[in-house]
Design a protein that fits this description.
Number of helices: 8
Structural class: mainly alpha
Helix content: over 70%
Shape: globular
Largest sheet: none
Distance between the termini: 19 Å
Order of helices and strands: HHHHHHHH
Radius of gyration: 17 Å
Length: 155
């Protein structure tokens, strides 16, 4: 929402022409906070023992969540032109998380219609106890990020 406010106030244009540039602006507003949250999650979750998952499992789940957050942030920035549209798209973007329920609620061959959602592969990894599905989640998330990042770069 900060980025949308900066866009509404035309501040972002001034930041784009500084040494930061457009790419640096997006990295400072989206990527750095996301990976800061990843670090905090990976450090604090094992300390407080909220789950019996291994460190590697926690890391991959936190990484998938971080990438999902980046996807949502890029989606909101790309698809909305003001704060009101941004709030509506933020609410709609929560539908991307429903993919995680596919392996639990849908019959076996039918749930693969959700293959394009990174959260689906995260759900598969948890449901099937096969952490190789996390690789597919990371690949799907990378594709989403690449598509939205390219659309932003062309604006």
């Amino acid at each position: 929402m900060v980025m949308l406010e900066e866009r509404d106030d035309h501040i972002d244009r001034y930041l784009f022409i500084t040494g930061l540039g457009k790419r640096g602006y997006y990295i400072s507003r989206i990527v750095i906070p996301a990976f800061g949250a990843l670090a905090v999650t990976v450090i604090l979750l094992p300390i407080f023992g909220l789950t019996d998952l291994s460190f590697l499992e926690i890391f991959f789940l936190a990484l998938a969540g971080t990438l999902q957050g980046i996807i949502i942030a890029l989606m909101v920035i790309r698809l909305s032109s003001n704060k009101l549209e941004g709030m509506a798209i933020t609410k709609l973007s929560s539908l991307l998380m429903l993919g995680a329920l596919g392996p639990y609620l849908m019959p076996a061959p039918l749930y693969f219609i959700l293959f394009f959602m990174p959260s689906f592969w995260t759900g598969m990894a948890i449901c099937e106890k096969n952490w190789l599905f996390m690789l597919l989640s990371l690949i799907a998330a990378s594709i989403w990020i690449f598509v939205f990042e390219k659309k932003i770069a062309t604006d």
